[in-house]
């Protein structure tokens, strides 16, 4: 079966690799245009574009599916389009180009967490279980009938990056199985049922930590925005980035945002919350690289006025 693969970030690469491994003919890859990366803002191909280049697959670069992109898709003559985190909407006029439509691998158990950041919202919300779904793309946002699903347990220490890495691999198998069933005429898509929840793209402000919140909510938020858009707080008027934290329920005497540096009975830097303290692991002060919180704290000496906002 001739497949157009649409995807952009690294999380989509395992699906592309799996389809190639399983013998699908990838006639073209649709991905977003090269984007500036790093401090030097060097134009860099998307991870999917880079992998397609290694595989010798033609690449269609388009941040949105305009008339030129649609003509390129038609020229590729796909039987089906497989889409994994492409990063743009597929217009209604493009949905009918492949005979079997566009089949989307979405990292949630639809209709839960429709939108651009399903795993991040699942982690922030404290879900016990998430998963992935393959569904037929239609005009609505992630509303199409579902071909198949898989489930993935969420652990308390999981970041969204951890979960996406696991789902990118198990989801790749699900996508391949779905396309094989569609090609064999054995796939049956079922209308979504259940409670709908939305997962809009997270902004930088979504990573700003409110230390008045309970420790559990803070831990979930930090995990949910790691690695993107990243967790942060303010320290002395500058943005201070945070890695995941560990709960320290035995420490309840720290006011929200107050930092206790290592010393005495404490072997690590602790921060007060609306419930009990949390222990810092990795931090990134303004203008520096990510480092161990213990190393950062040692550099502050015995200061007692460190407070996050």
Write a brief caption for the model.
With about 300 residues, this protein is α+β, with helices and mostly antiparallel strands. The protein has helices at about 15-20, 45-55, 65-75, 90-95, 120-125, 160-185, 215-225, 295-300; strands at about 1-5, 25-30, 35, 40-45, 60, 80-85, 100-105, 130-135, 145-155, 230-235, 240, 245-250, 260, 270, 275-280, 280-285, 290.
Gross morphology is elongated
- The order of strands across the largest sheet is 5-2-1-6-7-8-9
Mean pLDDT: 95
Structural class: alpha+beta
**Strand residues, percent:** 15-25%
Number of strands: 17
Distance from N terminus to C terminus (CA atoms, Å) equals 55 Å
Low-confidence runs: none
The main pleated sheet reads as: 7 strands, mixed
* Tally of DSSP helical segments: 8
Note the main attributes of this structure.
single chain; 309 residues; alpha+beta; four-stranded antiparallel sheet; 17 strands; elongated
Task: Give a written overview of the molecule.
40% of the residues are buried. The chain has eight helices and 17 strands. β1, α1 and β2 form a beta-alpha-beta unit. It is α+β, with helices and mostly antiparallel strands. The protein has a seven-stranded mixed β-sheet, with helices on both faces. It has helices spanning 13-21, 47-55, 67-76, 92-95, 118-125, 160-183, 215-224, 293-298, and strands at 2-7, 25-31, 35-37, 42-44, 59-61, 80-84, 102-106, 129-136, 146-153, 231-235, 238-242, 245-248, 259-260, 270-271, 277-280, 282-284, 291-292. It starts with a strand and ends in an 11-residue tail after the last helix.
